[in-house]
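pasting for ref. prot 1 ->
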Amino acid sequence: MRLITSIYEKEQLEYLKDSLDLALLESKEASLNYKNLDLDYAIRFCMDNHIGIALSMDKIYQPKTIKEAEEFLKKYKDIVDYFYVTDLGVCNLAIKLGIENKIIFDPKTMITNSLDFSIYASYGFHALGISSEITLEDCNTIIHKCNKNSFYQVFGLRLMFYSKRHLISLYSKKNNEEYPKEDVYFREATRSDYFPGFENINGTVMYRSYYISLLKELSQMKDFTYGYLESYRVDNDTMKKVLDIYKNAIDGKNIDELISEFNSLNLNVEDGFTYKDSVYQKEELKL
């Protein structure tokens, strides 16, 4: 497994450089979640430090903005290793440009079985993201049946909700009161959890209330191609420790010692859907 880590700021990139294998660069130009990363500087820095480069293009494009995606692909297609894409329209542009083999296509929760995986793999994409809302056993079944490159999140906050609507702004307008939009927490009336998120030009985003960690499961994930570490809302010092722990685990170091070291970071960790099947409740039709 190769580790790929989200990068949002120059300081973060410089601090983590010795621990990074493949950097997923998050930019205002193309990313759903971004800070203030100077993309051209980050690309040069990665090249100088022999760090693999993937550019995040995980926002959803509209017909009026899809041309921006095409220009972005054209600008960087001969420079970077991969593009991380969630919009199938962007994938079609990549196919037209002949760079489908540079696409890591992750439609979030959409790829849930080997048939889905095989159909998308037939387009020639470099790797495919498997749904984070199915069990690890099901993920392994997909990989073994399809024998293609895979992408799966192994650490960090997991995306729970995304809307192109600017919900905080709408709420502010309704209450005639200004609210912060960056690094906020949401809470529903029927839930006790606080969900981290933000609003920006792309819309409103909400993450689950805990960090995912699949450190102890890495031995079961040897056939996964990419393990994704989400650094959003993780300070640089903690993120460096997490990266080094995961690297050591992949290299076969003592997993019990590494788990103990990870636990000392005192993160609010759960395993998400790793062992939990989704259950759909049937509702009776009321006439």
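and prot 2 ->
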Amino acid sequence: MWDNVWLIVKYDLKRSRWGLLVSVLMYAYFCFFTVFITREQFPLDPAETAGRLGTVADIMLLTSMSCVGFAMTGDYRVYWRSDIFSKRLLFLRQLPISVRELVAARYVLIAINTAMLSVLYFVPLFLFGPLGRLLTPLQIVSFALTWVAFGVCMSVMYAYKELAGSGKSYFLYCCVWAILLIAIPVLTSLLGFGFVESSVEAVKRYGALVPVIGAVVAAVWVGFWFRKTERRIRSRSFSR
């Protein structure tokens, strides 16, 4: 099984080199602005008052981590017109590769991209932002892994639409989530809740327990969407 999985993964990594470069630049951009936003949100000088950028910080973390598992290749520019994902899946289904291997390869690629882009995003964030001085090393790792778990959960949902839906449905799905990832932090801020602030307080209080819970939830979530994606691909008209 894993020979076919790695064959697909290596092919996708090779063809997405420029897309990965774009993603690297994009996450460097995200990190740059998150550093300045968190400096305003978490002032190190006790005499300073916290800024009102908590909602912006929430939006930055939620949106950036929601797509952390993907390299921004050229396919994502035209998929709603050409349905290129369905065409690629149709081609792969004609090869002696099982559905399970196809889904597993996509998940391995998500894991690789998530690891690379998360390091690029969080390491400078803690080195140059205030969180690196407000949190202990264990709390820093716990905070990052908690958000990585969220990113993995979001990525497998996008992978389901990419592998099991049409280009138009995937585009609509992305539009809906783009709106929600902005609207939800705005609404929760009116209730006095902030995702970044709450996650910082959680890791301060509970430490490694927070990412452990996040990892368990992510593992169950990934297993659910893996089986759901596999079943949906088998039920498509071109499946064997």
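The chain is about 80% helix and 0% strand.
The two ends are 18 Å apart (CA to CA).
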